[in-house]
Amino acid sequence: MSVVISGVSVLIPGADGAKALAAGPEPGAGPVEPAALVGKKGLRYKDRATQLGYCLTSAALADAGLLGEDAMAVGGDIGVVVSSNYGNLDTVVRALDTLREGTVTATSPMDLPNASSNVIASSAAIRYGLRGPNLMVCNGATSGLDAVNWAVTMITAGRVDRVLVVGVEPDNDVVRRLLGGRHAVDGGAAVVLEDAGAARARGATVRAVLGRYVRTAGVGAVLERLAASGAPAPARWQLPDATPAGVGADLLPGVERAALPEHSGRGSGALGVLQCATAVGLFDEGGWGPVFAVCGTDEDDASAGLVLLAPPAPEAV
Amino acid sequence: MLSRSIIGMGAVASTGRGVRPLFDNLCRGRTGRAELRGFDRTRFRAQHAYEVDDRPAEGRDVPARATALLIDAIGQAAADAGLGEDLSGVPILIGTGLRELRSLELWWREGTDLDDTGLHFGTALRERFNADVTHTFSNACSASLYALALGSDLLAEEGDHAPGTVVVAGVDVLTESMYGLLERVHPAPPDRVRPFDRDRTGVLMGDGAAAVVLSRDAGGRRAHARLRSVAVNCDAFHVTAPSPEGIAKAMRTAYDMAGVKPKDIDLVMLHGTGTLLNDEAEATAMADALGDAANGPLMTAIKSMTGHTSGASGLMGLVMGVTSLNEGRVPPTVGLEQPVEEAAEFRFVTGDAASASMNVAQLNAFGFGGINAVAIVEAAP
């Protein structure tokens, strides 16, 4: 049984699709404007991460051929897994400031759902009618790849045939203070994962095939585990979020390395999904794999790695 | 048919530390309700919560209390299962509503230390247990049963990389923002948690953590119970209002996955938050899913004593429910006098703990955004 990617969306400053992301986001681009993408309706009272999540959800479902003319998902039992570490931090501190500077009656009841970190995942489900399992992953540096793997796990277990995976991080003052002045990517990516048989049955186009995932302490150990699992040698390596120490120069010698550029900011929980979208962008342009995606450096609690394979050549009719 | 052995358990809440002391206190009807311990009370209309009394000084809050409770519960469960102190390579799945957002609040307002590796629990679990396959899920109030579903899926995997043992945990402590916003939406400030009572005033938060060790086979150890199924879904209906249809669907799926009928259910550990919206919706769904068997199982809601332990609450219910199966005793729902109409025919345990011989328990947990999780456990043979 295998799991494939059948749809993708990307929204970060300077890249509005998988191919643009694979080519490298343009520096100096303006922020993503959710109202221009999905309309103003329903955006009020939603935090920026949730708004960005709406845009990514809509575009990925459309790309996978799963968005109906009524702008709702076709077939309701689609799961949702969202990865974000900074998603609702702005709501939490704003409500806290209001409380500390006044009393509880000064807070807005509209903030209640946004104070729960799963608001991005559940809001996307409500707006687009996604009734499958709904999961919010807030797992630090590896979160995006972990989210992809949990979607694969639920599909493999037979819980659901299709899962939308979103990785998104907003940028704001709280995030910048937490990151010691650096900014976050203020956008993200989404992929639609499907059981290969279910994708074939509806005639979906396979954009990438998912291979082995591992999570363990250290980038080197992740690469060793992937090699030991029988994964084919990579053609390209998507690197973790840059750190001063970087990753070891001795790792995977000769393999092309690629990373989210410094000007894009910290990918954090969005990074793993951005890496998957990059692989799809490469494969869409006729590039070949495998692509190794790795999140989390030796300074994080662990690293995760995922193998992405180019889709098989179409069978001769 | 799914069947996973539960070979280790741990728990800590305002009402006690350790599975057995906590269970005994709940059976005595002892609640952890007290005046707010860590917040400035003048900011709030509500004045009470169900907090673990572990702060170094009265009225002064400290960061990383959620992490400390989580480590306590996991340590208990790992010791109970004989896993030892080194959990490298063992998947640890944590369900939480609020992660370390209390540490974020203290960092923002009081300048305590935090960086972005301190919002999830992996960093601390690596330090304490050398754990490197850690996953923090922030799935509101159904988080720990969602984590249980994923843990059970992991054990179903095949191949050389498939784990034989998984730790599943849940944890939450009060955050000032959530405590405040929750009371903000109540017409009158909640005074105590009285699940399913007509005169209930709403929900109050509680601190707590629970953990279980799940294993593909018990390996010669006596299992506490067997996990038969965990169903998860999403109403896709409203961010704060639950849908009885979505909840009932999760219950029926859980029965189907477990291969049980409504009449087989002996005990239901209800979500029972005491909010104005949850209890009617849960009772309607429960009556729908059980059908003719609605007056069969004993039912109780331990949030009446632990408060709403948010993401921990589903697994807290499971650990207490498993202990009920093994002990033949069920803790009461304290403060429940006149059940709401939708729950009129249910066999609630009130007053004293009930004694009964039971084999199958149902555990409910529902969260903001309409995310539902329902588990079925069976007494070990």
TrEMBL record, chain B:
GO terms for molecular function: 3-oxoacyl-[acyl-carrier-protein] synthase activity. SUPFAM superfamilies: Thiolase-like. Keywords: Transferase. SMART domains: PKS_KS (SM00825). It comes from the Bacteria. Signal peptide: none annotated. Residues 1-379 form the Ketosynthase family 3 (KS3) domain. Coiled coil: none annotated. It holds the Pfam family ketoacyl-synt. GO terms for biological process: fatty acid biosynthetic process. Belongs to the thiolase-like superfamily. Beta-ketoacyl-ACP synthases family. This is 3-oxoacyl-ACP synthase. It comes from Streptomyces atratus.
